[in-house]
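Q: My labmate handed me this sequence with no annotations at all. I'd like to see what the chain might look like in three dimensions before we decide whether it's worth expressing. Could you predict it?
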Amino acid sequence: MPNPYAQIFAVRGAKGFTVAGLIGRMPVAMTNIGIITMLSATHGSYALAGAVAATFTLSMALITPQVSRLADRHGQRRVLPPAAAVSVTSLLLMLLCVRFDAPYWALFAFAVPAGTMPNMSAMSRARWTELLRGSPRLHTAYSFESVADELTFITGPALSVVLSTMAFAQAGPLAAAAFLALGVTLFVAQRGTEPPLQDPDAHVAKGAGALGGTLLVLVLTLLAGGVIVGAVDVVAVAFAESLGVASATGVVLSAYALGSAVSGLAFGALNLSWRLHTMLVVAVAGTFVTTLPLLVVGSIWSLSVAVFFAGIFFAPTMILVMTLIERTVPPSKLTEGMTWALTGLTVGTAIGTFSSGLAVEEYGTTGGFLVAVGAGAAALALVLVFTPLLGRAQQAREEHASEEAAGAGG
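A: Here is what I predict for the chain of 410 residues:
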């Protein structure tokens, strides 16, 4: 049986933009923790560090989808370089402010434009979509991208912290800026795989507009998933510290990432015949059910096993969300739609980190795990209520595609 991953990388140009995209997506995982590590070391204030990092994250959540919208409208090679240049320049100016002890307001002032950082995960997915549209291998490509995102968010923060603690305080954010500049430069040089501009006025299915209808449901689904990820990150630290084995936190988080990566690769190799919205319900139900054992764990090893199985449903959920976006969002808004979904995941992670931290302070680790359980329940309720909408939107797009094919054939 042919290796499906070997098949997708046999497509001309796929390896080139994939490598560039992997380099270019590292800054998203590195910058937030890099700012926190840098400012806590140079200014001795976690409050200031957290506030500046939160400003950057919020700015990125609001601006990045607009960068993707412009990329859909005007092309990646026209939009990505100036957007990346603004982000890189702003990060470098922030580092200079730290170096020369500038007023605090200057840090916030440069954190905002630093949020123009393009979402290279969405840009890569847009290229895969154009290369493999209508092929079952597109499912495999989305699976690879989800696993790549997972690995990025494992290695990126660790690299940023190591650089800022072992070299000099600004090294983490500086490396993020370098990765962004290099990745975007290499990515836009791959012109042969750049998606063509789409007609924004083409007929699309009802409810498929930007951040409305089906897309909003899918964004909120990933937001809830992000809350679970953020809660697991925080409570794993608190749980390990409560047992006096803080160094074991890495084992727990690695187990979660391993479960997600293994399931993502396996899911990408499958070609299931179920309807996408039905598979999404199953995946989200699995996500909810696997949060329940977190409430009864009693050791690092039992927690590691529990989060491993919780991670198994994360990657398939993300893959299905991205596939549904491709099937329901207009082609002229594809990159923007995917960026909104990934932004939802990022915002959800921030919410999960904050809310679970408060819960741990008030009710202990069980309170933190209840945040994850509540997010899983909310996600399941959401997809159960809106499954008919997702099904209708997908059917409408399929019917429209059939009509276009018939018209072209006639």
